[in-house]
Amino acid sequence: MKCIGQDIGFGDVKTVIEDQMLKTPTAIAYEGFGARVDLDGPTSIEFEGQNYLVGEDAIESGQPVFETTSIDFLLRYAPLLAYHAIKAAGFDFDEKIHLGVGLPVSYYTPENKAALANRLNTAVVNKERLQLNTLVYPQGVGAFYDYRLTTNEKISSALIVDIGYNTVDVVHISKGRPNKSGSGMFDRAGISVIIRELSRFISDRHQIQLSNQVIKEIFISKKLSLYGKEISLEEPIRQIVERYTTHLLHSLEDGYHQQLAQAQKIVITGGVAHYLQHYIPTKMQESIVIPESPEFANARGFYKVLIASISDSENVDA
After folding, report:
1. N or C, where is the chain less crowded by C-beta within 10 Å?
2. What does residue 16 show for φ and ψ, rounded to 5 degrees?
3. So what's the pLDDT on residue 313?
4. Which of 251, 135, 137, 147 lies closest to 189, judged by CA?
5. CATH classification of 141-188+251-292 is 3.90.1150.10, yes or no?
6. Long-range interactions of 287-292: CB distance < 8 A, separation 24+
7. Which helix (H) or strand (E) holds 102?
8. Where are the alpha helices (DSSP H) in the chain?
9. Residue 108 in contact with residue 171, Cβ under 8 Å?
10. The whole model's pTM is what?
């Protein structure tokens, strides 16, 4: 029986299986005329009567890539994204899989939690039944358990700041447990803010419109390839990130001043977590923790919790 931790984000799907950590773009496009086909066979995936291109195949196809910033998108296409990522990691669905996934804090309602689990547990993709037993957690909780189970520290109070593509999830830990009343979410405040500003810069300066997924790759590489010429964007990206992180930290201090002041640890996760190190106020420096490979912290935490819960169950059964 396999355990898989998966963070199905609006920008990327992060998957943790045993010692593997894999990131695949949250990119979906309809298979259309002229779509790229590998020599080994077609790259499309059939799901609910429609053929799709997923991940890098969608980005490189030239087909329009779906907008990926709504909870409706996540609930509808989670099985397709999960299937693609698990297959990319080299695993099959020949046995029952325990899957741990997350939902952004403000979307973590009983209805959405049940809908996501049901979609994943009953899905058939490419004529394969996924055989999933899905547990759904609030986004950010995985990062807390990743830190706690890695360090074995007993933490009674903490604040988890999980910077995703579309949302920034803030999870308050009180008396060693997630506290819903002290938690929250900044919607449309994640890395997508940086991507939109970088897109405007490229459009204004170089008169070219690019998809958000392509802009995301430019943000990572800090280079724009245009008509055979490579253009460095390191300085404009630095300025954009500096403005973003300064604004985000101000928003956190305004909205979560008490939680920040009383937290033993402030755990910052997500793909841009390391950028924030340069802008952390001195008074917070000692409590700030940025885990290794911070974009995988949630998926690692979901995976570790599943392993621990199954181990406890087996010990009870024994």
Report:
1. C
2. -125, 120
3. 57
4. 251
5. no
6. 287/263, 289/147, 289/265, 291/143, 291/146, 291/147, 291/150, 291/267
7. strand 97-103
8. 56-60, 71-88, 110-121, 141-151, 191-206, 212-221, 234-255, 257-262, 273-276, 297-317
9. no
10. 0.88
Q: Is the pLDDT assigned to residue 4 strictly greater than 50? A: yes
> What pLDDT does 317 receive?
46
Task: Provide CATH 3.30.420.40 ranges for the chain.
Answer: 2-138+298-317, 141-188+251-292
Burial class, 38, CB count within 10 angstroms (exposed 0-12 / middle 13-18 / buried 19+): exposed
The tally of CA atoms less than 13 A away on the side-chain side of residue 313 is: 6
Q: What is the 8-class DSSP label of residue 228?
A: T
Quick one: DSSP state of residue 302? H
Burial (0-12, 13-18, 19+ Cβ within 10 Å), 146? buried
Copy the structure tokens of residue 291.
Answer: 């885990």
Q: Give the model confidence (pLDDT) of 234-284 as tens digits.
A: 999 999 998 998 899 899 999 999 999 999 999 999 988 887 777 787 888
Q: What residue type is 194 in one-letter code? A: I
> Tokens 């996540």 identify what position?
74
Contact, 270 vs 190, CB < 8 A? yes
Are 35 and 130 contacting, i.e. CB atoms less than 8 angstroms apart? no
Do the bridges between strand 2-8 and strand 97-103 make them parallel or antiparallel, or are there none, so unpaired? parallel
Span 2-138+298-317 CATH architecture: 2-Layer Sandwich (3.30)
179-206 burial: b if 16+ Cβ within 10 Å, else e: eeebbbbbeebbbbbbbebbbebbeeee
